[in-house]
Amino acid sequence: MRSQTRSAAARPSRRTALGMGVGAATVLATAGCALNNPLREDKTPAARAVRDLEPDVAVAVEAAALLRTAQAAASATAERHPGLAARLAGPLATHRAHLDRVSAAVPDGVDLSATATPYVVPERPAAALAQLGTAERSLHDGLVGLAMRARSGPFARLLGAMAAATSQQLRGLAG
How far is the C-alpha of 68 from the C-alpha of 60, rounded, in Å? Predict the structure, then answer.
């Protein structure tokens, strides 16, 4: 009887095992997103340059590109729909602050000036906000994936904090 009690105590509870499985699935899914990064297979000179950098510098360059794209989307939306400018001030300030932090993490001489893809803003404000929300979710997911790839703990935490801030800004766009 005593040996049954001991072996039962050594096994994780059903709740613990389920939580471990969900956590492992989340990590694998996020890592899969990082592994399926389009820059990995891209043959352009810019993509080759990113792959040739130190791992965390390459992650910072990718983060800067994501942030510039999101910043361009929010700026274009605010310009097209001036009535939304006050609502978009938070995301724009957040993107600027994040871009400053990522830029500070990159050694001198590394080019972070890649231009963002042109962003087409929908004509109606509600559609513009919905599309911007999608762009912000893409930024969030990208930052989470980059945080998983970062080798430095402090840099991974910085990217994770940026993803959390982006998530908070998304709540503001929705409300």
Answer: 12
Amino acid at position 111, single letter: D
Query: Phi and psi for 53 in degrees, rounded to 5?
Result: -80, 165
Find, among 140, 125, 119, the residue nearest to 86 by Cα. 125
Q: How many whole angstroms separate alpha carbon 3 and alpha carbon 108? A: 63
- Sign for the pseudo-dihedral over CA of 84, 75, 128, 168: negative
CA angle 97, 122, 175 (to 5 degrees): 55
pLDDT digits (tens, 9 = 90+) for 13-55: 444 433 434 343 333 333 334 444 444 455 665 555 555 567 8
d(CA 58, CA 49): 9
| 163 CB-near residues (< 8 Å, 6+ apart) | 140, 143, 144, 147
Residues 6+ apart with CB under 8 A from 98: 63, 67, 162, 165
Backbone φ and ψ for 111, nearest 5 degrees, come out as -80, 120
The three-class DSSP label of residue 53 is coil
Closest CA to 52 of 34, 65, 39: 39
Distance CA 96, CA 75 (A): 11
Q: Where are the alpha helices (DSSP H) in 81-124?
A: 85-104
Q: What pTM, to 2 d.p., does this model score?
A: 0.69
